[in-house]
Amino acid sequence: MRGAERRVVILGSTGSIGVQTLDVIERLNRKTHLFSVIGLSAGKNVDLLAEQIRRFSPIAVSIEDEEGAEELHRHFQTIEILVGEEGLSELARLKRADLIVNALVGAVGLAPTLAALSLGRTVALANKESLVIGGELVTASLHEDGGTLLPIDSEHNALLQCLRAGKISEVKQVVITASGGPFLRRPIEELAHVRPEEALSHPNWAMGSRITIDSATMVNKGFEVIEAHHLFSLPYKQIDVIIHPGSHVHSLVEYKDGSILAELAASDMRIPIQYALTHPERIDTGLPRLNLDITAPLKFEPLDPGRFPAFTTVLHAAKEGGTAPAAINAADEILVKRFLTGEIPFTGIAAGLEVILNRWVALKGSPDEEHGKISLQTIRSIDRWARSEAAALQW
Question: Quick one: fold of 321-395?
Answer without folding.
Answer: Rna Polymerase Sigma Factor; Chain: A (1.10.1740)
